[in-house]
Specification:
Strand content: under 5%
Radius of gyration: 26 Å
Largest sheet: 2 strands, antiparallel
Helix content: over 70%
Length: 279
């Protein structure tokens, strides 16, 4: 791709965006466009995309929506306990994932130690854990500890450990190395370097990521109930199996309100933290 150039026009220097100036550049762009078009066509075939089938299925979607209206508000008192259970699952899943991710992130950060082999193993371990869906983890823990919210907590904690560990480690690697070198020169221990050199620089970014993870866990907790891990998901699946679509609509509305409320609270907290960091 051509680089931007300065052109003199009417005694003024004008900055213009670079454009391909050779036949080879145009051919490269054409090849890239053809490659993208082939990739989209190939993936559409594998995904069996069919807009005609979607159009043909619209009446069924309309039928489902019509059966869901109006929502059955009479079940709201019954949904209170599962809603609180969902929030509790998200809180403990987030807390445990933070506690598990913190030591792993310190090992995975390349600027804190020279044990490169241990750092690689730790990063690959977090990649493996993060690649397993929460539903699969929940099924494993349901078979281990039985039905209820506890397997949901364990599934969110394990999956969140991989995600938070990666973000925590990347935040550590982006910090200013000056304070760390000064502490090392003063003879500080590794624990002191982490407490006084690392944590003050990353705490704001860490809190923002943790709050975002809580939002994700709240949404995921509603789905984990589908495999017996408690919460609103269990009520949602039960209403669908019994064809009580008006109750299903009520469950979906409650879940949506919870997610929106969590998003608003986390955004408020993030703004407060960022304002405090500036001052």
């Amino acid at each position: 791709m051509g680089s931007p150039n300065l052109h003199k026009a009417h005694d003024r220097w004008v900055w213009t965006a670079g454009r391909p100036e050779t036949t080879g550049s145009w051919l490269s762009y054409a090849a890239l466009a053809l490659g993208i078009a082939w990739l989209l066509h190939w993936s559409a075939g594998g995904a069996q995309m069919s807009w005609s089938e979607l159009a043909g299925g619209m009446p069924q979607i309309g039928d489902f929506l019509s059966r869901s209206v109006p929502p059955d508000w009479s079940i709201l008192p019954r949904l209170w306990a599962p809603a609180m259970e969902t929030i509790q699952i998200a809180i403990w899943g987030t807390l445990l994932s933070v506690l598990l991710a913190l030591p792993l992130s310190l090992i995975a950060a390349s600027n804190l130690h020279s044990w490169h082999w241990l750092r690689r193993v730790t990063r690959q371990f977090m990649n493996v854990v993060r690649s397993i869906n929460e539903l699969i983890l929940a099924l494993v823990f349901v078979s281990a500890v039985g039905l209820g919210p506890f397997p949901g907590v364990l599934a969110l904690a394990l999956h969140g450990m991989g995600m938070l560990g990666k973000f925590f480690a990347e935040a550590i690697e982006e910090i200013d190395d000056g304070p760390l070198q000064a502490l090392r020169s003063a003879g500080a221990s590794q624990l002191q370097i982490i407490a006084f050199g690392v944590v003050p620089q990353v705490i704001t970014a860490w809190i923002a990521v943790v709050l975002y993870r809580f939002e994700v866990n709240l949404r995921s907790a509603t789905v984990l109930g589908m495999v017996g891990a408690g919460g609103l998901g269990f009520e949602l699946v039960s209403s669908l199996k019994l064809f009580r679509y008006q109750e299903t609509a009520t469950c979906i509305i409650v879940i949506t309100v919870m997610v929106i409320a969590a998003d608003m609270v986390s955004n408020w907290l993030r703004n407060r933290i960022q304002q405090g960091a500036r001052h």
